[in-house]
Recover the amino acids of this structure.
């Protein structure tokens, strides 16, 4: 049996590794992006000079041959499911017995005039990083950059450019950074921190148009505030969408992404889709149908490996969690804490912020009964195993607050804030009752 | 990757120095130049003044440089441009610096007369410049070791302040750095000098420098001097023995080898402060790990053999000169090693990887075999070699070339822990204790790892931390010195150094939290046992 995996990101590679652990099937992983698996999440650190490309590879190059995982460099331009064959842009074709599509995402572009100009780019792939090195090597050749889209990639790009002291204007559509996801207090704190890093943050501002110079390079952007901002780089970071254009006409059913069932199978037999490019036909709990998250890709890879090895296993991602870092502030989330936009009446929130430092947390709980729903922390590390257990046990929020110290995962000797948090919580509860 | 030769090469900005930094560099190097002039024979008239100027200028230069580097940005990880800078990215200045330090060590160890050492009569040159400070502390003229000790302490103090600034948001790093700065200044530098003033007949003893790192601690001239110095001397001799046999295993059991390697040790102190800008240069390949295990444990065997031979050579045939006779001593060493070996084989067999087991069996056989050979051959030599040639070759190969010339001289090329990782027999012993019998581990935080590789890149011991973190396994490695930088640089809060109970400490199964309810329960059960 020959299992072919399109895409050598975390999803495809996890699938390949787990298939190898369980069987002796022939495995081929195809990538147009890189010879070897690297960690996409670390691309920013290459540009910032923290790491070299070599460091981003989680496995040494000899690992793949040793584990008989075939690696093939090439771009798949079409799939012929009835012939179980892939067409490559080199003109070659490749036949498979089972196919796993793990092609990830591509940056969103919303039809802005000038979005295809030189000097306009997203930040997703290794090629994007190479383009950034060309477009913004330093602040002489790039005297200002404009970033469009206030999400995780946008703020990472801002941090990257600031590491080379390139002036950055950050256009954010929302009235406060990432407030479609974060509760207001947290979002406000991140606004402050972005500005502390000398980023020109423009909230409630949209991109209207990118203006070209004589050579067809971006030279400025025009905002909906009527302002023209001169710049040499425009970073488009308004989210990503599944990278599935090559499946058009293949008969594999798609919507935003490749539609999959609980077993990660598509509408066609022996064809599976995992990771960023997969879209759940029925979303799981509060999770989105398309989840472009590192660990869900990894979990889907692990799950699909069992299924293709003859042990059909439904994808069951458990309690939501995630983390990120906004410049110097680490963020972790466990369970669901809604933004102001998505919060309904049944959800109550408790917010605490440190009086002087950029540290805060928000707890969400049910209005009726006070069951703990989730927690966001900024500048405090939490222990995943403990919070996962508390969410499963549906602990009352009072107990979570009083036992918060058990879940602390900060390094030894760090200042602890549980007492302050608990005092504020008690005060609020007493005032409310 | 062959697709981006241009990457990083075109990159410029994060490597530039700002104006105050340039001035600070100028101040530091001008002050260092005073020492260079003294080395080349310039006889400074007022030595106290010139020495103070030189050392003070170097210190101020480094502190000013650090202030200028870290003052303007909010607290946080400061690794921007590390790989772009020539000195920390194996560029021209890295090789230059490496050659300069290597050269200094070669002169220091093998040609101290070039530094101005005069065995009969007053010193000249650089060493003479340090005479006033030495007279002030101990009442004796300076030696090349006094010059070295002063510069070493200065480096740990000044670069320690730099490190404190760099990691000012991290209390673990702050306390750890204050600790190494204290132990170097007090225990390695000031106390032994004062002891020399108060008790001139005692051997120079840095109390935290434990055998086998301090491989000469039980040589006959020292042991005799300890014994001749009465109760205080005997106490110090006893402390040296207790240090390795009782204090070390106890503290390592509770806190891991970090209590020594990154909180107390002088070599560790230099590596963590002056060596910090080079920590990312360590080799993370599995090949390097294999080499490390063989080399460092071979050094350990070598030092045990050498020390046994040296002690054996001066003990008497009976108990008239020392407490122990030759044969009692050999039987004692053999018995102790056999006990430790038997305990490991009986209780920790499963935890040892194949090659470690073979290595242990092999070395045990060699030691016992050689002792047996001695009894059978009944020669004047212990084992196959004369003890003096063993001592000399250890002192040359390990004590000088490995720990100094390679260990420190090659900081800018191979990273700051080459000696600690490949050469230090103390680290090897503590490592075995840590791996087999300690509460210390680095806990991985469920499923939060994104495999970015910051932890591995900045591990000075070349541990591929990510390999553990991305599969949810705790990091339990003999070589980990517990510096805590992996945890500090992790952008997702995945790693935590902690001391906890032994059950569940090593969890090599590949189960990540978040996927599949059944597995989650299994993991929860584990963490319950831990908590």
């Amino acid at each position: 049996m020959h299992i072919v995996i399109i895409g050598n990101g975390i999803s495809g590679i996890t699938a390949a590794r787990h298939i190898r652990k369980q069987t002796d099937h022939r495995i081929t992983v195809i990538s147009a992006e890189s010879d070897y698996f690297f960690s996409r999440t670390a691309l920013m650190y290459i540009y910032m000079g923290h790491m070299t490309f070599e460091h981003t590879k989680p496995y040494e190059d000899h690992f793949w041959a040793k584990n008989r995982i075939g690696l093939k460099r090439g771009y798949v331009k079409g799939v012929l499911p009835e012939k179980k064959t892939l067409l490559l842009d080199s003109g070659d074709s490749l036949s498979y017995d089972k196919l796993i599509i793990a092609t990830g995402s591509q940056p969103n572009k919303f039809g802005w005039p000038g979005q295809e100009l030189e000097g306009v780019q997203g930040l997703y792939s290794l090629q994007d990083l190479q383009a950034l090195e060309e477009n913004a090597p330093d602040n002489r050749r790039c005297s200002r950059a404009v970033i469009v889209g206030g999400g995780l990639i946008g703020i990472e790009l801002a941090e990257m450019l600031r590491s080379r002291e390139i002036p950055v204007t950050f256009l954010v559509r929302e009235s406060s950074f990432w407030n479609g996801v974060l509760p207001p207090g947290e979002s406000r704190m991140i606004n402050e921190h972005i500005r502390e890093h000398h980023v020109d943050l423009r909230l409630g501002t949209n991109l209207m148009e990118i203006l070209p110079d004589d050579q067809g390079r971006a030279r400025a952007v025009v905002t909906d505030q009527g302002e023209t901002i001169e710049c040499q780089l425009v970073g488009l970071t308004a989210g990503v969408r599944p990278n599935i254009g090559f499946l058009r006409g293949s008969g594999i059913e798609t919507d935003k992404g490749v539609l999959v069932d609980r077993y990660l199978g598509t509408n066609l037999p022996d064809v599976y889709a995992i990771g960023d490019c997969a879209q759940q036909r029925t979303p799981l709990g509060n999770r989105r149908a398309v989840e472009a998250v590192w660990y869900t890709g990894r979990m889907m890879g692990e799950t699909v490996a069992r299924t293709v090895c003859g042990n059909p296993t439904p994808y069951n991602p458990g309690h939501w969690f995630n983390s990120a870092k906004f410049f110097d502030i680490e963020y972790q989330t466990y369970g669901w804490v809604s933004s102001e936009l998505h919060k309904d009446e049944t959800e109550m929130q408790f917010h605490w912020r440190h009086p002087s430092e950029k540290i805060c947390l928000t707890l969400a709980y049910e209005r009726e009964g006070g069951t703990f729903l989730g927690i966001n922390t900024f500048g405090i590390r939490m222990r995943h195993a403990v919070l996962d257990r508390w969410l499963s046990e549906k602990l009352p929020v009072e107990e979570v607050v009083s036992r918060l110290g058990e879940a602390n995962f900060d390094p030894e000797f760090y200042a602890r804030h549980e007492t302050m948090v608990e005092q504020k919580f008690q005060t609020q509860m007493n005032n409310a009752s | 990757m062959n697709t981006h030769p241009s990457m990083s090469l075109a990159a410029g900005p994060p490597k530039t120095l700002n104006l105050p930094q340039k001035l600070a560099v100028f101040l530091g190097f001008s002050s260092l130049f005073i020492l260079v002039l003294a080395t080349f024979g310039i006889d400074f008239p007022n030595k106290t003044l010139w020495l103070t100027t030189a050392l003070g200028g170097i210190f101020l230069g480094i502190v000013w440089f650090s202030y200028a580097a870290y003052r303007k940005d909010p607290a946080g990880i400061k690794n921007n441009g590390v790989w772009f800078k020539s000195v920390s990215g194996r560029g021209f200045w890295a090789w230059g610096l490496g050659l300069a330090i290597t050269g200094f060590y070669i002169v220091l160890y093998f040609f101290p007369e070039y530094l101005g050492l005069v065995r009969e009569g007053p010193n000249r040159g650089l060493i003479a410049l340090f005479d006033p400070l030495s007279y002030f502390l101990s009442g004796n003229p300076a030696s090349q070791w006094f010059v070295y000790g002063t510069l070493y302490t200065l480096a740990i103090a000044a670069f320690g302040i730099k490190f404190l600034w760099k990691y000012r948001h991290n209390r673990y790093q702050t306390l750890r750095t204050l600790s190494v700065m204290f132990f170097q200044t007090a225990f390695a530098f000031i106390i032994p000098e004062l002891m020399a003033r108060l008790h001139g007949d005692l051997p120079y003893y840095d109390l935290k420098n434990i055998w086998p790192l301090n491989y000469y601690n039980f040589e006959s001239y020292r042991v005799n001097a300890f014994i001749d110095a009465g109760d205080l001397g005997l106490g110090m001799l006893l402390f040296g023995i207790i240090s390795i046999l009782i204090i070390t295993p106890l503290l390592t059991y509770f806190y891991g080898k970090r209590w020594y390697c990154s909180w107390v040790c002088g070599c560790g102190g230099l590596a963590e402060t002056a060596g910090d800008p080079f920590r990312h240069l360590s080799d993370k390949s599995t090949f390097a790990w294999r080499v490390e295990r063989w080399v460092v444990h071979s050094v350990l065997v070598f030092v045990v053999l050498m020390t046994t031979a040296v002690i054996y050579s001066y003990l008497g045939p009976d108990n008239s000169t020392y407490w122990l006779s030759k044969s009692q001593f050999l039987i004692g060493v053999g018995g102790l090693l056999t006990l430790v070996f038997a305990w490991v084989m009986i209780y920790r067999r499963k935890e040892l990887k194949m090659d470690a087991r073979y290595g242990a069996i092999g070395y045990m056989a060699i030691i016992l075999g050689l002792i047996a050979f001695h009894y059978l051959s009944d020669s004047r030599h212990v084992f196959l070699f004369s003890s003096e040639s063993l001592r000399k070759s250890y002192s040359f190969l390990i004590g000088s070339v490995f720990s100094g010339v390679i260990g420190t001289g090659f900081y800018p090329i191979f990273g700051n822990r080459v000696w600690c990782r490949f050469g230090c027999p103390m680290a090897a012993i503590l490592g075995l204790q840590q791996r087999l019998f300690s509460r210390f581990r680095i806990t991985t935080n469920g499923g939060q790892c994104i495999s970015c590789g910051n932890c591995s890149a900045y591990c000075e011991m070349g541990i591929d931390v990510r390999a553990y973190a991305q599969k949810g396994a705790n990091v339990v490695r003999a070589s980990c010195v517990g510096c805590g930088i992996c945890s500090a640089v992790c952008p997702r809060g995945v790693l935590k150094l902690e001391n906890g109970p032994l059950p569940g400490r090593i969890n090599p199964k590949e189960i990540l939290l978040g996927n599949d309810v059944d597995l989650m329960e299994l993991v929860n059960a584990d963490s319950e046992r831990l908590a």
User: Anything to note?
Assistant: Chain A has ten helices and 25 strands. Chain A touches chain B through 72 residues (CB under 8 Å). Chain A has a mean pLDDT of 96.
